[in-house]
Specification:
Layout (H helix, E strand, L loop, with lengths): L5 H7 L28 E7 L10 E4 L8 H7 L6 E12 L4 E12 L7 E12 L4 E7 L2 E2 L1 E7 L2 E12 L4 E11 L10 E2 L3 E7 L4 E8 L4 E6 L3 E4 L5 E7 L6 E7 L5 E6 L5 E6 L4 H22 L8 E7 L9 E4 L4 E5 L4 H9 L11 H18 L32 H25 L1 H13 L19 H11 L5 H9 L2 H4 L2 H18 L6 H8 L3 H27 L6 H9 L3 H29 L4 H6 L5 H13 L3 H16 L1 H44 L43
Parallel strand pairs: 3-13, 19-20, 20-22
Antiparallel strand pairs: 1-2, 1-5, 3-4, 4-10, 5-9, 6-7, 6-10, 8-9, 11-12, 12-17, 13-16, 14-17, 15-16, 18-19, 21-22
Helix pairs in contact: 3-4, 3-5, 4-5, 5-6, 6-9, 7-8, 11-13, 12-13, 13-15, 15-17, 15-18, 17-18
Length: 751
């Protein structure tokens, strides 16, 4: 939404429909300017001379009080109160002729009494008519009355002279006709009548009476100000009517639209955006200029803002009368995807309203943020296109119309100069502070801000997909995103003098203290992001809870660092599971459990490190002998694997197994050595016995052979070089004793 030029503001004071920049929300109807009060009549008196003369000797016409304001008219011409003027006024909208024709039937009755021999009469009647009124014609029963006009501020004074003096008790019937011609687009006239649009102010005249307005069929008619009853006339025309008790306080604004008669131009934009520009048929210049501005402006805006086109369908841009906008230069309605812009061709207004496609309550709820962004980005876009546009006017927080921008309510009809000054200050102040923020953050940073605002994500994201923020999209979100996501510094302090109330400013000191601790935690964490509970409290502005959680997190990081040093000595890194538990802790209890898991891992690491040192230490022979057949290094590797996965219990168990194995290895070696010596002794004894047995058996065999061989032949058989390795004792033999000799072998074949 944009504020209009001065001429539009004047027209807006006549009253019109208004729409909020982000929703259909009609305000209280504005009150159109009522006809100014003027002396209602041209007066005179007739005085009777002395009785001796017997005839009228003096005639005096008095004309006074013309065009006096309401506060003076009645006192200046008290006698004029005796003229009772009732009117029946009919307005007929004529789009083809581009005018409104008016017919006023005036009934004037002289109710002044004769006082002290003086008869008062009325020579004519005064009416205050619209400043655009022209082509006056007045008559009484076909007799033309003389009508003259005089220009006044805000109206035109019409004086009608009766064709005869109107004495006490007499009645005059005057039929008055005049026209309200349509003003050209961008002219000072408040009347617009064309094929697609009609707007004008309706006045009543005289003291009381009635007003009727007829608009051709097809137009959608709205009236504001004094109430009028709507009906249907000949041929489907719209008829609005009202009885008038006090014409000096009665007025209505008529606004009629016939959108089917608008000319339409479809724009083809580079990113596929669909825009339709609809203008009054009588104003082709507006259509050309607006279409050109949007064709260049929308793509440039999209690039600077960095968000995709948010409309699924067409954006409609319509030309309307400035008076319809009630003091503003344009509106955007997201529910209809519709921009209405006054006939004035202001490039900043055109691009400003286009930027509201992105900058509306769906992005940030506070009006001052969206209006400030719309102005600043429209200005930056035009500047980048080489189009000159004025920036915000210089404003002060000490100005009498100043207020905390966060208390700026939705748009409302601007009816007074005080309202106008307040709105103008708010637009300039919001632009001023937003310009400071954008300059601090920079356009790339602001693009990140807009993306996070659209996604609804927190300003304090962790790893992976950022969580959704719990805050409404108000000034707190704006400050957090600008600083944490956009990379700006001191943004909240920029907002304070312009936008924040005293209670809101009181929140900034706790926020600053908590953010200092938060950033220290982030720095200490290194590649570990802050726990979810900390980030959640910061996002929700629960700074006391955030500081409590930060203290626990800092202690956890201290333990992590100690673990990291000792783990590196045995070739290990901090378990990834510990980092995951720390980062994803969503409650204080979960964060405390992480600290407990960390303590268990630290104890397990001590055991693993001790086992690792023991395994690396030099070993005595008995230890080596005791470890034969087992491999503690495999168990140690399993302990390290378990620890690295975060399983402190298994790591401790395996490390203890390694320590136990090493601690008993020497004793096991002694036992094994003793067993080995015993085995060797036994083996030696068995070997000696085997040798003796072999020798004895050799002697017996030698004797048997000698008896069988002729005496002349002697054969000596050498004994085996060594006994059999494992001899077997005969049954019933006693170890160490020689066996019984084998019986001689008888060779029965030799007998």
């Amino acid at each position: 939404m944009r504020r209009p030029a001065g001429r539009q503001r004047l027209a807006a004071l006549l009253g019109a429909l208004w729409f909020a920049a982000t929703a259909l929300a009609p305000a209280s109807a504005a009150t159109p300017a009522s006809p100014p009060a003027v002396a209602p009549a041209i007066t005179g008196s007739t005085a009777t001379a002395s009785a001796q003369r017997g005839r009228i000797t003096e005639v005096r016409d008095v004309v006074a009080g013309v065009a006096q304001p309401q506060t003076r008219a009645r006192s200046v011409l008290a006698a004029a109160d005796g003229l009772d003027v009732t009117t029946s006024t009919t307005y007929l909208v004529d789009p083809a002729a581009r005018k409104v024709t008016a017919a006023v039937d005036v009934t004037a009755v002289n109710r002044l009494p004769v006082t002290a021999g003086v008869r008062y009469y009325f020579a004519g009647v005064n009416l205050a008519v619209q400043p655009e009124a022209t082509a006056f014609a007045a008559d009484e029963a076909g007799v033309r009355d003389r009508a003259t006009t005089a220009e006044r501020t805000g109206y035109r004074l019409l004086s009608i002279l009766f064709h005869a003096r109107l004495y006490v008790g007499q009645t005059a019937h005057v039929h008055l006709a005049f026209e309200l011609p349509a003003g050209a687009p961008r002219s000072a006239s408040g009347v617009r009548v064309g094929a697609a649009y009609a707007a004008f102010v309706v006045w009543a005249f005289g003291d009381s009476g009635s007003v009727t307005v007829t608009v051709p069929a097809g137009f959608v008619v709205d009236s504001r100000g004094n109430a009028m009853t709507a009906g249907t006339g000949v041929g489907g025309s719209s008829v609005l009517a009202s009885a008038v008790d006090d014409a000096s306080a009665w007025a209505a604004w008529i606004d009629a639209r016939y959108d089917r008669a608008l000319t339409s131009q479809s724009l083809s934009l580079p990113a596929g955006q669909r825009v339709v520009v609809q203008a009054w048929p009588e104003d082709p210049a507006w259509q050309r200029r607006v279409a050109a501005a949007l064709t260049r402006g929308i793509p440039a805006l999209a690039t600077r803002i960095g968000l995709p086109w948010p409309i699924n369908g067409e954006l409609s841009v319509k030309e309307v009368s400035g008076a319809e906008l009630e003091g503003y230069a344009g509106f955007y309605r997201p529910d209809l995807h519709q921009i209405t812009i006054s006939e004035d061709l202001d490039p900043l207004t055109i691009v400003h309203e286009a930027s509201h496609v992105w900058f509306n309550s769906a992005l940030f709820a506070d009006r001052w943020i969206t209006e400030g962004l719309a102005n600043e980005y429209a200005w930056r876009t035009l500047d980048g296109l080489g189009v000159s546009a004025a920036g915000p006017k210089s404003v002060r927080t000490s100005a009498k119309e100043a207020f905390a921008l966060d208390a700026w309510g939705p748009p409302a009809a601007i009816k007074t100069r005080t309202q106008d000054a307040r709105e103008q200050w708010a637009y300039d102040a919001s632009w001023t502070v937003v310009r400071e923020v954008v300059a601090e953050v920079g356009e790339p940073g602001m693009a990140r801000v807009f993306a996070a605002a659209e996604a609804g994500t927190t300003a304090y994201p962790g790893v992976g997909t950022a969580e959704r923020s719990t805050l409404p999209s108000d000034w707190r979100r704006f400050a957090d995103l600008a600083e944490e996501v956009g990379g700006g510094s001191g943004v909240a302090e920029m907002l304070a003098p312009w936008a924040l109330t005293a209670d809101q400013r009181a929140l900034l000191a706790p926020r600053a203290a908590a953010r200092t601790q938060y950033h220290a935690l982030v720095a200490a964490g290194g590649d570990w992001t802050a726990p979810a509970v900390v980030r959640g409290d910061m996002d929700a502005w629960d700074f006391a809870d955030a500081e409590t959680a930060i203290a626990v997190a800092r202690a956890t990081l201290g333990s992590r660092d100690a673990i990291r040093v000792e783990a590196s000595s045995v070739g290990l890194a901090v378990p990834a599971a510990l980092r995951g538990d720390y980062e994803t802790a969503v409650t204080p209890d979960a964060l405390a459990r992480t600290a407990g898991a960390e303590a268990a891992l630290f104890r397990a690491l001590d055991a693993v490190a001790a086992a690792d040192r023991a395994m690396a230490a030099p070993r005595e022979g008995l230890v080596v002998l005791g470890l034969l057949g087992q491999d503690p290094s495999t168990t140690l590797a399993a302990a390290k694997t378990a620890w690295a996965s975060g399983d402190a219990a298994i790591a401790s168990q395996d490390a203890a197994a390694v320590a136990d194995a090493l601690s008993v290895a020497a004793d096991a070696g002694r036992l094994r050595l003793a067993s080995l010596v015993a085995a060797l002794v036994a083996l030696a004894l068995l070997g000696g016995a085997a040798i003796a047995i072999a020798r004895r058996r050799g002697r017996h065999r030698a004797q048997a052979v000698a008896s069988a061989v002729p005496s002349a032949t002697i054969v000596q058989i050498a004994p085996p070089a060594a006994p059999e390795p494992y001899p077997i004792l005969p049954a019933n033999a006693t170890a160490g004793e020689p066996p019984e000799p084998l019986p001689d072998v008888v060779d029965e074949g030799a007998q």
